[in-house]
Specification:
GO terms for molecular function: antiporter activity; xenobiotic transmembrane transporter activity. By secondary structure, this protein is an all-alpha fold. Helices cover 83% and strands 0% of the residues. Helix 3 packs antiparallel against helix 9 (221-255).
Length: 437
Amino acid sequence: MDQVPLRRVLSLALPALLVLAAEPLYLLVDTAVVGRLGAVPLAALAVGGVVLAQVSTQLTFLSYGTTARAARLHGAGRREDVVAEGVQATWLALLLGAGLVLVGQVFAGPVARLLAGEGAVADSAVSWLRIALFGAPLILVTMSGNGWMRGVQETARPMRYVLFGNALSAVICPVFVHGLGGFDGWGLEGSAIANVLAQAISAVLFLRALAVERVPLRPHWRGMLAQLGLGRDLVLRSLAFQACFVSAAAVAARTSAATAAAHQVVLQLWTFLALVLDSLAIAAQSLVGAELGAGRAERAKALARQMIRYGLVFGIALGVMFAALSGVLPGVFTPDAGVLAEVPHAWWFFVALQPVAGVVFALDGVLLGAGDAAFLRTATLLSAALGFLPLVWASMVFGWGLLGIWTGLSAFMVLRLAAVLWRAGSGRWAVVGAVRD
């Protein structure tokens, strides 16, 4: 059976890569800028950043779920229905985002103190988080816009929207934090303001893209409820990720400011590279969904095999590259000697996991494109419960620090790898039709 040409895969993956990389890359810049303020602001950014990231991650069904539904409709030739999915996903984004802003202002303090304990780190994290939460509706609108556009295999336009906002914000972030000329800067809070500005610019562009389409823009509760049905499994899956990474941040913060700051540096690099590898998953999701929507199950299975190979090769390449940068790159993010001494305890886990991550994320994209969210939910919850969480919390009890935290992440990834390889080989995910029941 003919394979999908590599050029076609890359035409979808490369623009998606820039979209996926834009936010983590901005956060890496943010980490480097804030790191110059010292260990406490950097640790506070670690705590506040993981809370905001997990809030948005919890609602990734607005992107991935919308793509799964839209790609099948696209494969069946129903463009207008695809855009209608985007309209209802955007209404959901605005409603859920507004609720997050209100709830977040109330619970920012208790959550930050729960993660970091009482003290300067928690206080600074609250100040950052209260501002950054105003970007929640904007983040979710961007997710929904990416979702329906990926469904019609259009990734270049979302790339331009996201990069424009983040590039402008990255330029002004150092000014907002450290000042320029007679302006003294706003310190840690300045990074939150720059972050919200980037999200606002991108969200407005996605809203405009919907406004020019010839479809009704009214909210329809039935359509939103249908999306929430698929979103249920993705939300539960996201809860597993949330529990893992929030727990890791909490244990690191309670160990020491240097441990929390080192974890922030390596975690941001992990997040960045995970999304780099996930660009292949975006291509797989769009292509697999379209093939199944058009009734071509065997071509969808062939795509799955291609994505395994591509993910493994790219993962190995990234692992080799960051192994070579181990003596140089951490110093870009902070000059603090205590933080730099902690970084190697996580660094080599991060390097070794890249090939595993390449295969896992590629197959996640295949299964999400097939709408196989229920399996991914169960596999992720079990991997978190059996692998990550026991080792993370044991690290706090026994004082294992970053070694224990990143051993837990390794167990989590290996268990997920076994699960998705088994599922892909079974072929039971390849259900054809414009809509998967």
